[in-house]
Amino acid sequence: QVQLVESGGGLVQAGGSLRLSCAASGRTFSSYAMGWFRQAPGKERAFVAAINWIGSSTDYADSVKGRFTISRDNAKNTLYLQMSTLKPEDTAVYYCAARDVSYYTRKEDYAYWGQGTQVTVSS
Fold it and tell me: DSSP states of 4-70 as a string?
């Protein structure tokens, strides 16, 4: 069982930066692939970024590629999403997710989800 708690969301102006964190409980965090998803008002939840168990491989949605960076610190059981050059269309609730295999997917095939953190980007 893994529990995930996101933090770091908030209100930021367009062009600004935020870093989201996802703290995970459990001793097997280092064996899990992790992902970030987001859900904007009135829209379905969408893939943002993912990382494999050791951090050697990552994937990004086209809409965030070059602006967002996913990383993890297995010693701290923490997943990160560094967001730069934020745009109003990045406004959403951001969720971290874990799957109990070493490789990631863009699908919502993740067993564990956090409660989400709100990111609001003003124009």
Answer: EEEE--EEEETT--EEEEEEE-STTGGGSEEEEEEE-TTS--EEEEEE-TTSS-EEE-TTTTTTEEE
30-88 pLDDT, tens digit each = 899 999 999 999 999 999 999 999 999 999 999 999 999 999 999 999 999 999 999 99
- Count each helix (H run) and each strand (E run) in the chain, helices first: 0, 11
The letter for the amino acid at 30 is S
Contact between 35 and 22 (Cβ < 8 Å): no
Q: Are 96 and 29 in contact (CB under 8 A)?
A: no
Pairing state of beta strands 58-60 and 117-122? unpaired
How far apart, in whole angstroms, are the C-alpha atoms of residue 32 and residue 3? 12
The per-residue pLDDT for range 82-114, each reduced to its tens digit, is 999 999 999 999 999 999 898 999 999 999 999
